[in-house]
């Protein structure tokens, strides 16, 4: 499951990143996107519900969190839109297939969708998707961030290369994450695979965010 908590810091050289904020975000993701879905699954299967139906209900906490975040911030961010759409698509296909293993692997749809969007932005976009994601989330904390990023993009070639490289790396990571998710889902029992894959997603996204923060900061300093 893609972490649904709103990033607390934008991956930009101009946006502050506190360790406490990152820790709170990670803990929140572990609770909402890993612990609660697993608890829902265990409780419902313990009550005799089928694996497929229980796995469908386990998507409720992350989906509700996206909506809560949208109400809280008075806007539905693009990542949230993709998460909701892919959750709906995954639920529909898993329920129609009746395959518990597919239900566990359904979040690979999110990884594939993000990977395609990231890769596509390098081909057809004026700016890579990572640029827009950083600007969107960072503007909530730094209203001047969009302007600062535009100046960096126009004047700093290292900044441009870094964001393009980060977008390409993220696309590759999403592809690998989806491949590993499908492999584990069809290899392990659902009760084992579900918590492993939930934590895997959080680790992957947290790692990508941290790497992006460090690389973009270095790129911005190099352009001064």
Short description:
With 224 residues, the protein is an all-alpha fold.
What is the first-to-last residue Cα distance?
A: 39 Å
Unreliable stretches (pLDDT < 50, length at least 5) are 6-18
Strand elements, count: 0
Which sheet architecture does the biggest sheet show? Answer: none
Organism: Pseudonocardia alni (Amycolata alni)
Keywords: Membrane, Transmembrane, Transmembrane helix
Protein name: Intracellular septation protein A
Transmembrane segments: 76-96, 108-125, 166-186, 192-214
Topology at a glance:
Blueprint: H1 19-46, H2 51-57, H3 60-73, H4 78-97, H5 100-105, H6 108-124, H7 129-138, H8 145-155, H9 157-185, H10 190-222
Helix pairs in contact: 1-2, 1-3, 1-10, 3-4, 4-6, 6-9, 9-10
Report on this structure.
The chain is mainly alpha-helical and 224 residues long. The protein has one domain. Helix content is 78%, strand content 0%. It contains 10 helices and no strands. It has helices spanning 19-46, 51-57, 60-73, 78-97, 100-105, 108-124, 129-138, 145-155, 157-185, 190-222. It starts with 18 loop residues before the first helix and ends with a helix. The model is unreliable at 6-18 (pLDDT under 50).
Primary descriptors:
single chain, 224 residues, mainly alpha, 10 helices, 78% helix, elongated
């Amino acid at each position: 499951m893609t972490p649904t908590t709103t990033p607390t810091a934008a991956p930009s050289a101009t946006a502050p990143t506190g360790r406490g904020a990152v820790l709170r975000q990670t803990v929140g993701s572990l609770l909402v996107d890993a612990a609660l879905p697993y608890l829902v699954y265990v409780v419902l299967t313990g009550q005799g519900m089928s694996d497929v139906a229980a796995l469908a209900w386990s998507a409720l906490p992350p989906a509700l969190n996206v909506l809560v975040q949208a109400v809280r911030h008075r806007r539905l961010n693009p990542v949230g839109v993709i998460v909701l759409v892919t959750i709906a698509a995954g639920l529909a296909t898993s329920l129609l297939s009746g395959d518990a293993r597919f239900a566990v692997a359904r979040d690979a749809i999110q990884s594939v969708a993000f990977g395609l969007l990231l890769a596509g932005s390098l081909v057809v976009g004026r700016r890579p998707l990572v640029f827009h994601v950083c600007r969107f989330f960072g503007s909530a904390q730094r209203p001047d961030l969009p302007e600062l990023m535009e100046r960096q993009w126009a004047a700093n070639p290292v900044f441009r290369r870094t964001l393009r490289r980060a977008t390409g790396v993220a696309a590759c990571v999403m592809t690998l994450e989806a491949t590993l998710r499908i492999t584990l889902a069809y290899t392990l029992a659902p009760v084992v695979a579900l918590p492993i894959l939930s934590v895997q997603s959080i680790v992957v996204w947290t790692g990508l965010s941290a790497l992006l923060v460090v690389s973009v900061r270095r790129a911005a300093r190099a352009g001064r």
